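Hi team,

Filling in the usual template for the complex we talked about on Friday. All components are listed, including any nucleic acid strands or ligand strings, so the model treats them as one assembly.

SUBMITTER: L.P.
PURPOSE: interface mapping
COMPONENTS: three
RESIDUES: 1059
SEQUENCES:
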Amino acid sequence: MGRVVDVVVTVGQIAQLLNTPSPANAQVQVTGLNTLEEATESELSFCGAEAYVRKLSSTRAAAVIVPRRLKIPAGVRVALLVVEDADLAMAQVLERFAPPVPRPAPGVDRSARIDPSAVLGNDIAIGPNVVVGAGSRLGDGCILHAGVYIGQDVMLGDGCEFFPGVIVRERITIGNRVIIHAGSVLGTDGFGYRWDGHRHVKIPQIGTIIIEDEVEIGSCVCIDRAKFSTTRIGFGTKIDNLVQIGHNVVVGPHCIIVGQAGLAGSAKLGTGVVLGGQTAVRDHVTIGDAAMAAACAAIADDVEPKAVVSGMPALPHRQSLREQAALRRLPDLVVQVRKLQEEVESLRKGISP
Amino acid sequence: MGRVVDVVVTVGQIAQLLNTPSPANAQVQVTGLNTLEEATESELSFCGAEAYVRKLSSTRAAAVIVPRRLKIPAGVRVALLVVEDADLAMAQVLERFAPPVPRPAPGVDRSARIDPSAVLGNDIAIGPNVVVGAGSRLGDGCILHAGVYIGQDVMLGDGCEFFPGVIVRERITIGNRVIIHAGSVLGTDGFGYRWDGHRHVKIPQIGTIIIEDEVEIGSCVCIDRAKFSTTRIGFGTKIDNLVQIGHNVVVGPHCIIVGQAGLAGSAKLGTGVVLGGQTAVRDHVTIGDAAMAAACAAIADDVEPKAVVSGMPALPHRQSLREQAALRRLPDLVVQVRKLQEEVESLRKGISP
Amino acid sequence: MGRVVDVVVTVGQIAQLLNTPSPANAQVQVTGLNTLEEATESELSFCGAEAYVRKLSSTRAAAVIVPRRLKIPAGVRVALLVVEDADLAMAQVLERFAPPVPRPAPGVDRSARIDPSAVLGNDIAIGPNVVVGAGSRLGDGCILHAGVYIGQDVMLGDGCEFFPGVIVRERITIGNRVIIHAGSVLGTDGFGYRWDGHRHVKIPQIGTIIIEDEVEIGSCVCIDRAKFSTTRIGFGTKIDNLVQIGHNVVVGPHCIIVGQAGLAGSAKLGTGVVLGGQTAVRDHVTIGDAAMAAACAAIADDVEPKAVVSGMPALPHRQSLREQAALRRLPDLVVQVRKLQEEVESLRKGISP
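RESULT (copied from the run log):
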């Protein structure tokens, strides 16, 4: 972990942070977190589920965070930090140990190419080889890591951070505190052609993209500009790596879109929708608020609010499970039906005169 | 839309462009297109299907393009532009309003690194931080946006446009008017190893790639170089974002490959093949001319010309539908068979002496 | 193939390389390899399977490498190079003809930005626009192609080669002879949030990544840093393009992960696991040594060592095949059961008094 291990706190300080009684070894110093197996005497660890409880006997960790609901077997000697909300506690501890993200030096790197007509806010940091096009505007506190490309007439709110190699093409509007991870591309033409009898002719894609506040976008994500009007990602939505968002897609606020999911053109997600990894959403499909799709679901029809769907094609999850259970028995069923046919045939012969 | 709204035309001029009678409000000025819901009084809109006809009553659009075949309910007051071919009309109007794509200044940016042995055509535009390797040649009118990398001995025809961050490795031949969108990579080694008893040993991938004229390639697409011989993308084929094309794949002309599809090594597509999003094509599979695969199809066997396939594994689409319909009834079928077994058993007992 | 055709050897020399008797045309010069159809009189070719044997009659190749087990029909006139291990022979010949990979000039390009605190080994080659952050260390013989980004405190062993545009973020450790292809991103934050009642709050991802010796990573691959502890790719593992590796994933040595596969957080692969293209692995799933997953498998549960799984959800491959075979018959089965119901009904009536 190199120069990172600068954070040193005591077990007691962690207990205080988590608002839980301090164990006997309160004065022991810890420098980070690790798994139950790998933690050293100067690291904390975490045990969130029954499945891992047996590891509590052998861990060398200085102390282990456990949720109150977890049943701890007798004989466990490691110091425990018992909390109500284990996820929250983990997040708090991670924040405590989080090393600062290395960022470009304040100001504009000498190798960056900022168009004279671009407007830069205060307290910005622009790294090597960044390009910012004509008419673009960066809000206060924006950070553009090395090699970021911002096209013409792109509007960024305050506090955005784009990691190396992010590409944002022309005429895109991005809100405040938006994070885009390395290698993602916003603003490619939507995928649209018409056949003129001889070849596919490109349909101009003249629309734009709006990314609302507090959206986070992973690496190698592609978000296409609208044919006309707007491709939109709603407030606080989080998108994982390698996701494809087609033209005119509208994603509501607070959605979670897991890695390698794909949303075809004009798909529409409500508020708080969760799409598992490798999910596919057909063009023009609407997914209601708080609906969830399991990983690899292939969604070809509209999904009701709060529905849970899975499978290919995606069905209500219970139906999917029932069909899968039946499918497990299908080979036997085929045999049973053949046997039934024979029996019925023999019965028929038996009663025929 | 920033500085884009410079295009102002009248409804009458649009009618003329579409070769259709002008509505009464011919003199009204319009500045763009939008959806039926979002269009303002100075925007055009479009209604292509029955499903949206009801929105015609409430739209504020200056005029709406509709195909002649669409049945317009009485009482619709918005001005209509009635056309034969709605897709063509849309494309024409989009072209009319399309803002120019921002491009690097003519010539070679001072930060670009062009090898002295590279040959550049006339009227080229090469942006910041571009690299062009030894022995490469760019045809007339080529545009390389910021950060494009062209390796050694790469041949580009006339009128190609590569968006920011495109990477084309050595010894690749690209035709005329080829568009490659931001972040795509051409020329990575094909994925090939042999096990020597101790480890996977890399098999050299010494072949090349040929991209024919008028191909368009989306963002974050990977096209691998051949093991030997050539990976080839045919004339006028269009490839969406995040598509994987393995080594020695041959894609015919006029194909459409939708986002996140993957073609394994030596797969072969005929002319005019359409692959839906997230389609998978097994290595060495051949797909016939004009065949189509629905989204998420997993194609493990050759596909006949003009066939339509879907599902995993991909089957003829009608069969797929029939099986899916039967699968919906499978849980009931299991119950029915159990009941039949009981009935047959009871019948047998009934007639046995 | 441009300036590549510098390698000229005779058929006899190739026979010697492959340790096989030389054909009669030993003195004929060859300049490369090609397919049976496309090979010219000065090229070698290869015939590995029965399916292609008929092409031996019409090929123009100077000589064809064939495995001893292949039955050659009478009348084949082309010179044959008969070998025991055709894959090995192919690899040897490809190595013989492999053109050198173009690399940056030795030393550090003047446009590269190397932090003064970074430590560079001997015989390195760093191309244009490369960035190397503070505290990072490159072993001997490392090659960073144009536009590579190395963050702070990144440790590289000896002999690594990173192709254009590769991004390696801070605090990552990479072993010896690791190859990363263009456009891949290592070190993005893992995808983790907690809902605080109002919005998704980012959970800090403070861990790191270890890439062991002789790993090869394709293009546009994303490997996320661990939440805490380490995301790890084992010795000699090979990863194809567009693969997603989530936080805290542990991949054992000698694995093969084919294009567009996705491994969710904390998934664990043993030694020598093979994942087909577009495979999905659920979070926290463990896959045993030498297990294999067919393309498009959706792995939701642990997989035993040496097991072969396929389908969605992934099942033991034989069971998957049996179910698929039964599913092909399901539409007929539905009809058969309906008929049986009628027959049983009619039987019941027939025997009722």
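MY TAKE: The longest helix of chain B spans residues 317-351. Confidence is low (pLDDT under 50) at residues 1-5 of chain B.

Thanks, L.
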